[in-house]
Amino acid sequence: MKTLKIMTWAAMLAAFFAAVVMVSAASRTSGDDQSDAGAAFNAKCVMCHGQKAEKKFDSSLPDEQLVDIVMKGKKPEKPPNMPAYAEKGVTAEQAKALVEHMKQLKSVQ
User: Fold this and answer.
1) Does residue 97 carry a pLDDT above 50?
2) Could you tell me the pTM of the whole model?
3) Which residues pair with 32 in a beta bridge?
4) What are the sequence ranges of the domains in the chain?
């Protein structure tokens, strides 16, 4: 009888920890795009666009146009130019996450 109680408790604990691990992994996966975008922004973009995406970023443009600028680059009237990140291996999904991150940063101001 005592062995059965111990086995029942062990099974319940194992199920609980398995659920915790699954929920934790799912939340990490859904936030990965945003954390990757934040890391990419800090590494590549902050020097020109500022900590809060307050410089040279028009958040009123449609997302498709902003993603296109990230992917293909842009030559403004005066330097520095926005480089084309598709050539550097950035995917459209990553560019979209980056645009969303920048819009979020700018909205916090």
Assistant:
1) yes
2) 0.66
3) none
4) 33-107
Rounded to whole angstroms, the Cα distance separating 102 from 50 reads: 10
HEC states along 2-71? HHHHHHHHHHHHHHHHHHHHHHHHHHHHHHHHHHHHHHHHHHHHHHHHCCCCCCCCCCCCCHHHHHHHHH
In CATH terms, 33-107 corresponds, of 3.40.50.720, 3.90.1170.40, 1.10.760.10, 3.40.50.2300, to 1.10.760.10
Bridge partners, 87 (sequence order): none
Q: How far apart are CA 41 and CA 50, in angstroms?
A: 10
The predicted-structure confidence for 8-30, as pLDDT tens digits, reads as follows 765 565 555 554 445 544 444 44
